[in-house]
Design brief:
4-stranded mixed β-sheet; 53% helix; 5-stranded mixed beta barrel; alpha+beta; 10 strands; 35 helices
Length: 865
């Protein structure tokens, strides 16, 4: 009997009670196919054991019992083992059936445990349950994508011979019920011949399957005890494979003026940041030389470095494609990729690239490939003619044909966003400046030329982001190369300077990277729109982004650290490695929609992305789903299943007090500014009315205003400390399930939760991790970033002491404060290994020190006048 379109576990068990076994089988098989709850699936399988036995399908009942007896749920195992024994006693198996032939193997994936069973052929795609028994003699292909136990495998999984085959839609009917998937076997499924007394003897089975629900009626506690699968390939998940548009009409073009202004703003900010930094270094150097006898300051360092910085940035922007080629070639082994080579992985992408470039009259971008197992894609250059599209081998291996094409289309989106509007305006302003210069008005001429330089980045999307990445790369290479040199050098005299240089370079990398965050977040919304217009496949793009997230998380677990490539080129990648670590590591235990609830529903979520390189992936995928609905397509992700989407917006609003508390240090700066303006107003009133006691406020207006800013920051930090770091007591510690923490929609980082989590500490070894840059806790339910602060603050990490990096790759217990933001993290209090080695973190203390220092500095500025 075929499964029903709307199966129900309750209806199936009710039919089982009433003796309507055919209806019961139809409902329960449907539950096994479509239900996402492991508990419901276990109950349905227990009911199917009874229904199969009562309808004479003994072999199916036996195989289900074998599977359930291997569950890590103790009650399920204790229920299934005696039932299996009764079935073996009542219906003994013929000796010749010990080795099933390929023609009679059960397509559901069940096989009895037998140490002598030879390796079986890979299961067909019609295996809708995804269950296979534990058997060390099974072939690796059968075990691919399955957990270590039958109860471990969520309903999203399916046994697959290779990742690429499973990720593509199968021509077979994957929704066929379990009963139809099994080929006929008259010996295994003999007609029902039990007597009435046998039927009465089977009543305990029926009662146990319906009324006794081992380990499934216990709510949250048993849910947390679900066995966890440690590694899962993206293709091992069962995707909906929602379709694509046929004969679609491109959507209306999006206005890019805001993006152009942002590009110019980032270029100007990069120029001023480097200029101020360089000027600070030159001034500090000369001040140092003045205090040393017999040495003279460098006169050139007294000059403004403006011209040098402009020329250097222009040269880097012009040479950025070739410099980045050299960096990727030397450090990461990049290789050329031809269209014929690409067609072996994605024929659609190989056809789409030249077709679209021909339509837009663009030169075909240079294609390259990285020998990395992490699925990444990069696009850089300064003009469309010099653009490069780089993908990794991991991306080609883990994504299907249409998904690879969607990623390439998205990379093309970054290229076609380039416009010559900035160059045209700059050229015009340069000519006007030259005209003023000929007239003898040098001031006006230089002003026009500065305006020309400021307008030059307008529309140069690819050039600006490539320039930011290149400058950041130079600092990042110094960081990890010096760190590696310091690790190989045994001299303590050289280690400290190496650590200082490495730390300063890493800080410079983050400073430059921060300048490009806003532009990086904005450009992906445009490229996603272009990708869906080119391919007509928003669902393929959705699957591609999710598989990239899963693949990056898997790569971090396999290599037990974050690779240099993932961190340094984060701004160019389709999915940020930090958001991928959270999303990609918990999806084997829950649905995508559940994890993405915070991204879609939290009213204050946009404020939390200020320090993120990518837009919230939930918002991004929801927007892509709207493109699919625009073309009347079924969506890959069902966002309507999120209950809160139906809730009125007034009920979803985060209290303003919570958001103000979250941003208290920054709102404190605004408060300080307002306080300084108030003092200026009082000084003006005193001057107007001749009140001498108030006049001084007007005379020292700028000093008071500048001093009030750090005072406001310190007061705001004080206000937030208690909420950010509540007292940790044994009674309020939680041993949480990460998917549940991630799915909470109303929380902000200020809603701190004391937690205790056990797992394995991942991260880089050695000097490159002395600042705690790469600390990740791998738990049974996912990955989460850890933040650490030493007793002496950042300086203390450079001194010989116990560091978290000393516990890398060891089982640890982490106690600290969980914060849910755009990317979740834990601020550590203690990190303890099984051998008793303990590393303490001092976040609350240093937050207090920072607040006091800021307030004291502001008071000193005002007192000094």
């Amino acid at each position: 009997m075929a499964s029903l379109p709307d199966p129900s576990l309750d209806d199936g068990l009710t039919a089982l009670k009433q003796g309507n076994y055919q209806d019961a089988i139809a409902h329960l098989e449907g539950v096994c196919e479509v239900d996402l709850s492991s508990k419901s699936v276990v109950r349905a399988q227990m009911g199917l054991v009874v229904a199969y036995e009562r309808t004479g399908k003994i072999e199916k009942a036996r195989l289900l019992c074998v599977a359930l007896s291997q569950s890590k749920y103790p009650k399920v195992k204790s229920w299934a083992e005696p039932i299996k024994a009764k079935l073996d006693q009542r219906y003994p198996q013929p000796p010749q059936k010990s080795e099933p032939s390929p023609e009679t193997v059960d397509f559901t994936g069940f096989a009895p445990l037998n140490e002598t069973t030879p390796a079986l052929e890979p299961l067909p795609a019609s295996d809708v349950t995804g269950f296979v028994p534990l058997n060390e003699t099974l072939s690796p292909q059968i075990r691919t994508g399955t957990g270590s136990n039958i109860a471990d495998v969520p309903l999203q999984t399916t046994a697959s011979p290779t990742p690429r085959d499973t990720s593509q839609p199968d021509k077979k009917d994957v929704s066929a019920p379990v009963q139809k998937a099994v080929k006929g076997n008259t010996q295994a499924e003999s007609p029902r011949s039990a007597s009435r007394s046998d039927a009465n003897e089977n009543k305990p089975l029926l009662a146990a399957a319906i009324s006794e629900t081992p380990s499934t009626d216990n709510s949250s506690k048993d849910a947390d005890e679900l066995p966890v699968e440690q590694t899962r390939s993206p293709a091992s998940l069962q995707w909906k494979q929602a379709g694509r548009a046929q004969g679609w009409k491109a959507m209306k073009a999006v206005q890019q003026e805001r993006l152009w202004l942002l590009q110019a703003g980032v270029a100007i900010a990069l120029f001023w940041a480097i200029s101020l930094l360089l000027q600070f270094v030159m001034t500090a150097t000369n001040n140092f030389l003045l205090n040393i006898p017999f040495l003279q300051p460098i006169q050139a360092f007294y000059e403004q470095p403006t011209g040098v910085v402009v020329i250097a940035l222009l040269l880097l922007a012009c040479l950025s494609p070739w410099i980045l080629d050299l960096i990727l070639k030397h450090f990461y082994g990049i290789q050329p990729l031809s269209l014929s080579g690409l067609s072996k992985f994605s024929p659609e992408a190989a056809k789409m690239l030249p077709r679209y470039c021909g339509q837009k009259r663009l030169k075909l971008p240079t294609l390259k490939i990285l020998p990395s197992s992490a699925p990444v894609a990069l696009t850089y250059g300064n003009l469309p003619q010099t653009a490069r599209i780089v993908v990794s081998q991991g991306l080609l291996d883990q994504l299907a044909d249409e998904e690879i094409a969607a990623i390439y289309a998205g990379e093309l989106g970054h290229i076609v966003q380039n416009r010559l509007v900035g160059i045209a305006i700059a050229f015009g302003m340069f000519l006007i400046g030259g005209f003023f210069y000929l007239l003898g008005n040098a001031d006006w001429a230089f002003n026009c030329w500065w305006i020309a330089l400021a307008c030059l980045p307008l529309g140069a999307n690819l050039a600006v982001i490539s320039l930011v990445v290149l400058v950041a790369q130079l600092a990042y290479i110094v960081y990890w190369q010096v760190a590696r040199w310091g690790d190989s050098n045994q001299s303590p005299v050289l280690k400290i300077p190496a650590a200082v240089i490495s730390a300063l370079s890493y800080g410079l990398f983050w400073l430059i990277r921060a300048l490009g965050l806003w532009l990086s977040r904005s450009r992906f919304n445009y490229s996603d729109r272009v990708a869906t217009d080119i391919t007509g496949n928003p669902n393929g793009l959705t699957r591609a982004l999710l598989k990239i997230a899963i693949g990056i998380a898997t790569d971090v677990k396999q290599h037990q650290s974050t690779s240099w490539l993932l961190e340094s080129f984060d701004l160019l990648m389709p999915v940020g490695h930090r958001q991928a670590i959270a999303l990609g590591s918990v999806t084997p235990l829950t649905t995508f929609e559940s994890v993405l609830q915070w991204d879609c529903l939290n009213p204050s979520r946009q404020w939390m992305t200020i320090n993120n390189s990518h837009p919230l992936i939930g918002d991004r995928l929801y927007l892509i789903s709207l493109y699919a609905r625009h073309w009347k397509l079924e969506t890959e992700l069902n966002f309507t299943q999120i209950p809160s989407l139906k809730t009125p917006k007034t009920k979803l609003r985060t209290p303003n007090s919570k958001l103000l508390l979250q941003g208290a240090p920054f709102f404190g700066i605004l408060f300080g500014l307002a306080l300084g303006c108030l003092f200026w107003l009082l000084g003006w009133i005193g001057s107007f009315f001749g009140i001498r006691q108030l006049v001084w406020m007007l005379d020292d207006y700028w000093t008071i205003l500048i001093g009030c800013l750090p005072i406001g920051f310190g007061l705001g930090t004080f206000l937030r400390i208690n909420a950010f770091f509540p007292d940790i007591k044994p009674g309020n510690l939680q041993d949480p399930n990460l998917p549940k923490l991630y799915a909470s929609t109303a929380t902000l980082p200020v809603d701190s939760k004391p937690v205790r989590m056990q797992g394995k500490l991942l991260g880089r070894r050695g000097m490159s991790n002395w600042l705690g840059q790469d600390l990740i806790l791998q738990t049974d339910t996912g990955l989460i970033k850890l933040h650490h602060c030493s007793q002496l603050g950042p300086i203390g990490n450079l001194l010989p002491s116990s560091r978290p990096g000393d516990l890398i790759n060891l089982p640890v217990t982490a106690i600290g404060w969980f914060h849910r933001g755009a990317t979740p993290w834990i601020d550590l209090e203690t990190l303890r290994s099984q051998s008793g080695i303990t590393t303490r973190s001092y976040h609350p203390i240093w937050s207090t020190i920072l607040a006091c220092a800021a307030a004291a500095w502001g008071i000193y500025i005002i007192w000094r006048g």
